[in-house]
Amino acid sequence: MHDDRLLVEGRLERALRQFIRPARYTDRVPLALSVWHAPGEPVPVAEALKASYAPFETGTEWGSPWSTSWFRLRGQVPDAWRGRRVEVVVDPGFTGDGPGFQAEGLVYDASGVPLKGVHPRNRHIPVAAPAQGGEPVHLLLEAAANPAVLRDFEPTPLGDVLTAGDRPIYRFASADLAVLNEEAWRLTLDIEVLSELMYELDAARPRRHEILRALERALDALDLHDVPGTAAAARAELAGVLASPAHASAHRVSAAGHAHIDSAWLWPLRETVRKASRTFANVTALAEEYPELVFACSQAQQYAWVKEHQPHIWERIKKAVTDGTWAPVGSMWVESDANMPGGEALARQITHGMRFFREELGVETEEIWLPDSFGYTAAFPQLAKLAGVRWFLTQKLSWNQSNKMPHHTFWWEGIDGTRVFTHFPPVDTYNSQFHGAELAHAERNFTEKGRASRSLVPFGWGDGGGGPTREMMERARRLRSLEGSPRVEIERPSAFFAAAEEEYGERAPVWSGELYLELHRATYTTQAATKRGNRRSEHALREAELWCTAASLRDPSYAYPYEALDRLWKAVLLHQFHDILPGSSIAWVHREARDTYARVLAELDEITAGAVRSLGAGEAAVLNASPYARSEVVTSGEGALVHVNVPALGTQSLAVAAGHTRAPGTGARAQLADGTIVLGNEHLRVTIDTDGLLTSVRDLDADREVLSPGSRGNLLQLHPDHPTHYDAWDLDRHYRNTHSDLTDAESVELVEDGPLRVAVRVVRAFGDSRITQEIRLAAGSRRVDVVTDVDWRESEKVLKAAFPLDVHAERSAAEIQFGHVHRTTHANTGWDAARFEICAHRWLRVAEEAYGVAVLNDSTYGHDVTRAPHADGLGTTVRLTLLRAPHSPDPETDLGTHRFTYALLPGATTGDAVAEGLALNLPLRVAEAPVLPSLVSVDDPAVTVESVKLADDGSGDVVVRLYESRGGRAAAALTTSFAVSAAQVTDLLERPQRPAETDSAGLALDLRPFQILTLRLTPVR
């Protein structure tokens, strides 16, 4: 037999492209168009219905970037179309850019009821099936002129409405009434499914040739000049190969409809409201036609938006949930970043998300669903279990640059030892279209073959592309059992997880520790103002809840601000979305984020001030929101420095707090000699040279030098920063090949000379930028603070601050949510080498036996740690990544002024790092207030109180969340300054689990390493 495969395949491809696909719609009549170009921001449909419309012709330009135009579409179904399936087909000027990254639309009926979205791969609106003929068509299209921003990562002004300009960017192509030729459409799908499968099969397999010859016979049966009339005959030739069932051993695909919608990214938050509305309208309409659909949808925030802005669509969602075609998933308020949110914030992501799904939709979600976040904290397994979550899904690790994850289905073990059953879909996408190549890849790629037989495939267009389509549903029907292909079954993700766990759970491997993404490492640093706003808002919320709780317990007339705190938490949680907090969104998003954080912080300051006033009359006092007692220098209301001692989670009068007697010679002092400045107190002696750099940090308690021999600390280093691909996202390894040390100083000046604090101000200018730093040492403190003001005007540079430490550290410890993780300082393996940039929260510590040094910060997340040989041995260099200046998608990323503080903490134990990291991020507050003992006390410092608040149910119960923070066992007693009538241990959502154990010392706590415990205390009323 002669091999004519290539000839037949070429014949098929041309016929499909030129004749068969275009035959889906052959009869068309244009609709009459008129337009209203809405001024400014989007408006509700009610306003559009009242607007005045002008005639509009296809082929006309419309839509300046980010604008909205409303089009009326009017016509009548021809009588000759009686009995046929009639649709409106709209093309407002779609481009070659992907769905979700260009123009989009939502179609309403004449009364303003939303019907369906319009997208490049989903352009139709049903009219009648079958038509009677003569039906009037009156539709309203809300068309969004969203620009394509991300093109080869080139700088563009299109990322902000303030800079995008007003030139129209689309040309309206068509709006027609059309007849869908169903047999031709189905023939297209038959051919696509079979040909895609054929191309994935080995040429030696008989099945490939069976499909080829069936396709050849179908082409022979088809008149290419009358595809609609001969499609049925062609389909008959394919029926046999389509009916051949899958092998018993075929890989099993559990498919779930999906539409990953970034809550902001290359569009602002307000546009996500509309993207979600369009997609959700599509999905609920699709489910009416395909009742087997199951649409998995995460992010409670997007549901809340649709509930507020599109009540008709919201009611359809509720019905779909009841019908079983819609599966709320994810358990979180948004698909947040999974590295940088603080511990309590990550807990609130889960509690707010799960509570919304339960209260609004009656659903208890059972999984964390984070397909696209940039790495995953090892705190997640415990948080998931505490919330009653059984499963975890991600996909992003398929993007790893260096190392392939060895598992697709596994137990993920967190820092406390908790395990959660985890799946990482081997299809390597969360936007599958059921292409043959995707399914074949899922089967080939699945690492658990021979031990497990199933994987999950999320399918549908995301980011405003409209979600699953009817073509995808038709493909799924053909792929349910098809020889040569994996079996495809559309089902709920929970059904997949339950089956996978039953099949493989006892034998599944374990991955311990963080799921580090070997890509997008710059997201720990990019958009520093956004990260600073997040960090400060998290701690301001912590402080506000504490003092509001104290006010509620002390003053029965005080109204705890439930609604305000809930609203503010949700604003912060929203901005932890995985393209906002990481800094990878357009300029518009980050401009609004800065404004939002300013409002959040201002309102929280008012709430806290009001709560403090409600504590009762009193003189000037110092308030400590940290769970550790503090002894430090503060500025009084009159601007004077005072040294105070303040209890944990309590207050002390300023006079008493500052009334202690300091031992002689224990103040802070400065000496000048030969151009150097020496700052000292009873713990440290810090030498600063004429360049303003640290040449010595002497730990007087340990009698050892902290800096490596011959090195200088707080050395600012400037690197060129040109990622290969993803500007805002990536810090590629090659950036380390070149750097400049910023050693030149305009001035080095002693600006505070004790006795409570000494400080040296260093001013540097480089490029077009200017940086002013105050190196401060306070009386009694073991901390060297570096208070930094930067006017940053660089382009494609990254700024680091280096501390070469004379510490032989095999690993570093970095704070994460509710604990810390260790990472090696060497690069022995590819996995070690890939971690050349790492994330830490308030502190990072390196240590050798019996001695450690921590670097603290108040807003920085990116760090690197390297081994640094010196003349006397081996040291460790710790660097903080301070600022970047990428050009895409925000061409002016980070440009402007920044203020932040980082600090060096010599001789630090893990407990010291925890306490001082909290102190740096929770400044003492001076205000008029009564003296209050610690609201909550724990007698073991290894137990850290994370939050104190009133219960969300409005009962007046006090909720205390705490954890073991040092990585060991802790037996402790918790006491309160208020009388308690009952105490219960709860889950993460404050639901009681069991009575708390009590003894004469208080509530008995017995915690394992990094264990989180939530307590619910009922005050005596």
Description:
This protein is α+β, with helices and mostly antiparallel strands and 1021 residues long. Helices cover 26% and strands 31% of the residues. It contains 19 helices and 56 strands. It has a nine-stranded antiparallel beta sheet. The protein has a six-stranded antiparallel beta sheet with strand order 3-2-5-10-7-8. A hairpin with a 2-residue loop joins strand 44 and strand 45. Helix 3 packs antiparallel against helix 4, helix 3 (182-200) crosses helix 12 (470-479) and helix 14 (528-554) runs antiparallel to helix 15 (562-574). It is elongated and about 105 Å long. The termini are far apart. The mean pLDDT is 97.
Keywords, separated by commas or semicolons:
19 helices; alpha+beta; elongated
Biggest β-sheet strands, sense, barrel: 9 strands, antiparallel
Helix run count: 19
Terminus-to-terminus distance: 93 Å
What percent strand? 25-35%
Mean of residue pLDDT? Answer: 97
Topology:
Elements: H1 5-20, E1 25-30, E2 32-38, H2 45-49, E3 54-56, E4 61-62, E5 68-76, E6 86-91, E7 104-109, E8 114-118, E9 124-128, E10 136-144, E11 170-171, E12 174-180, H3 182-200, H4 206-221, H5 227-243, E13 252-257, H6 269-289, E14 295-297, H7 300-309, H8 311-323, E15 326-328, H9 343-361, E16 367-369, H10 380-386, E17 391-393, E18 409-413, E19 419-423, H11 436-445, E20 454-459, H12 470-479, E21 487-490, H13 493-504, E22 510-512, H14 528-554, H15 562-574, H16 587-614, E23 620-624, E24 630-635, E25 641-646, E26 650-653, H17 654-657, E27 669-673, E28 676-680, E29 684-688, E30 694-699, E31 704-705, E32 715-720, E33 740-741, E34 747-753, E35 757-766, E36 769-778, E37 784-792, E38 797-805, E39 811-816, E40 819-824, H18 830-834, E41 838-839, E42 843-848, E43 851-857, E44 862-870, E45 873-884, E46 896-906, H19 910-921, E47 925-928, E48 936-938, E49 943-950, E50 958-964, E51 970-976, E52 980-986, E53 992-995, E54 998-999, E55 1002-1007, E56 1012-1019
Helix pairs in contact: 1-4, 3-4, 3-5, 3-12, 4-5, 6-7, 6-8, 7-8, 9-15, 14-15, 14-16, 15-16
